Recover the amino acids of this structure.
């Protein structure tokens, strides 16, 4: 199973400056665990101590925010794209 992973520029340092690469997993949580094996320290930067996605980060599966699907339990399949993007805040 091959999942395309995309990293925003500000977090590419966690993946040896790779913007896009392939990985594996049947859920977002499993994908993050696999990325931790490949890039030690990745998970600690993505997930808070309560094992939830840090509030400054959004994760999308095929352009859909996982918070509105099944969060970390969101299923992914071969050919899907998972994007890790910083949260943007609005203002005046």
């Amino acid at each position: 199973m091959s999942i395309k992973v995309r990293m925003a520029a500000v977090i590419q340092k966690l993946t040896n400056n790779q913007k896009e690469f392939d990985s594996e997993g049947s859920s977002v949580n499993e994908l993050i665990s696999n990325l931790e094996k490949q890039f030690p320290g990745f998970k600690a930067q993505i997930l808070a101590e309560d094992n939830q996605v840090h509030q400054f980060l959004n994760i999308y599966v095929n352009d859909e925010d996982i918070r509105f699907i099944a969060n970390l339990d969101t299923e992914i399949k071969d050919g899907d794209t998972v994007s890790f993007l910083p949260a943007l805040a609005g203002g005046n």
Residues 28-38 form the longest helix (11 residues). The two ends are 44 Å apart (CA to CA). The mean pLDDT is 94. The CA atoms of residues 6 and 83 lie 5 Å apart.
